[in-house]
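To: structure subgroup
Subject: Chain for Friday's discussion

All,

I'm putting the inputs and outputs inline so they're searchable in the archive.
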Amino acid sequence: MSMQRAYEDLIGRWKELQLLQSCAAVLGWDERTYMPRGGAAHRAEQHALLAGLSHERATAPEIGELLSRIEEGDEQFTPDSAPAVNVREIRREYDRRTKLPRSLVVALAKATTLAEQAWQEAREKSAFETFRPHLEEVLRLTREAAEALRAGGSAYDALLDRFEPGETSQNLKRVFGALRDELAPLVAAIVDSGRAPDASILTRDYPIANQTAFGIAAAAAIGFDFERGRLDETVHPFCSGIGPGDTRITTRYDRNRFAQAFFGTLHEAGHGLYDQGLDDAHSGTPMGDAVSLGIHESQSRMWENFVGRCRAFWTHFFPKARDVFPAALADVSPDAFYFAVNDVRPSFIRVEADEATYNLHIMLRFELEEALVEGDLAVADVPGAWNERFERDFGLRPPDDAHGCLQDVHWSSGLIGYFPTYALGNLYAAQFFEAARRDLGDLDGQFAEGEYGPLLGWLRERIHRHGMRYRATELVAEVSGEPLGHRALMTHLKAKFGPLYGD
C-alpha cells in the first residue's frame, strides 16, 4: 500500500470516528438542555455504549498499522502541511487512547453521566454529601486513567495533557504564581479605593424574553451565525460544536440579573465563533479542530470581556439596551452602566466573577483538583478545604455548598485537569487582543460603530483556520510575537480599572 493510500484510509477511518463522537455530543447537549431527569440512567447506558464503540474504533490495530506505514514511508509530508499535522495529532491521540482499557472508558462514561445528574440535584439542595459518593467514584476512575496515561510525569499532568497538550502543572504554577503576585495587589487596591459602581442597575427587572432577544442580537452582531447554530437554556452554560453547520450555545436566565445571561451568551458565542471559523474542508480531522481548550477559552473570554465589557461596545449597544429595557434603564447614564458591568468585588460564583478576580477562582480550583488527583485531599474534605482557601483568597466564606464547591459541573463530568485552561484562556486572549490592536488599528472606533467583522476576520485568519497546526504555546508566540506570560493581561486590567477605580 502506498503512503498516500494509507493516509487516505487513515483519514477515512478518523472521520467516521468523529461522526460517532458527534452523535455522543448531541446526546450530551440534549442531556443538559431538554432531557427529563428520569432519563439519566438510560442516557448513561447510551453514553457508555457510544464511548465503548468510539474507543474500539480509535484504538483499532489498523489505525496503528496505517500510522506506522505513513511514518516509515520513503516519502514524507511537508512539515506543518495538513497531512503532516493530521498524522502527528492522530498518532498522539491513538497512543493516548490505546493506554486506556475499554472497560475503563465505558465505566467513566456511565459514572460521569450519573454523577452530573446527582451534582445538579445536590447543587439545588446545596448538599455536598449527596454528591460525594458520585464524585468519589469519578475520581477513582479518573485516577485509574491517569495512572494508565502517565509517562514519567505526575498523574495530574496526564489529565491536564488531554485538555492542554504539552502543558504541565509545574509550568502552570510558575505562570500563575507570577500572575497572582501582580493580580492580588491590584484587586486589593480596587477594593480599598472606596469607589464602587451602582451595581443594583443590573439587578432591576429585565424580562427574560427581552434578555433572550437582546442576547441573540448581540451574538449575531459579533458574527455568530444562527443559520448554523442555536441558543438554548441550561443550568451550566456551554458550547457544543456538533459538526459543520451545527454549533449549539447555551446560557441561563434570571429576571433580576442582566449580566448573567448577557455575558454568558457573549462568552459562549465566542466559543461558537471559533467552532464556526474552523475550516469545513478539514472537518473530522485535526486540521479542522481547535488547538486546545485554553485557546478555545481565549476566544470566549476575548468576546465576553475585551470586547463585550469595553466602553466602545456599549457606545453602540447601550442605546439599543435602553430600547429593549426601558423601565430598567431609562434613568441610567451610559457611564453608570459601563461602570456597573465592570464592577470589581470578591464574589462566590466563578462564572459571574469580574475580570480582575476571575483568575483567583481558577487558581483555587487548580490547587484543589491537583491535590485530589495526587491523593493529598480526600473527597470528604473538599467543602472544608474549599471554604478555607476561598476565605484566604477572597476574604469571604461561602454560606453553603451551592456557593462553594458545588457550583461547577466539571468534576461531575470527569473534566479534572480542565480548570487551568480558563486562566490560560485569559492570558492568551490578552496577547491575541494586543496583537489585533497593532494590526487592525482603531478597534474601539470600529466597536463604537458596531463593526466587529475586522476582528473576527483577523481571528479566523490568524487562529481559527490553522486548526491544530500549532501547539498552544507555538500559536501564541506566532500571533503575538512573545511567549506566554502575564504582562499583556495585567496591562489590560490596569488600563481598564485604573481610570474606573483611581490610578
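Points worth raising on Friday:
The first strand starts at residue 229 and ends at 233.
The chain has 21 helices and three strands.

D.
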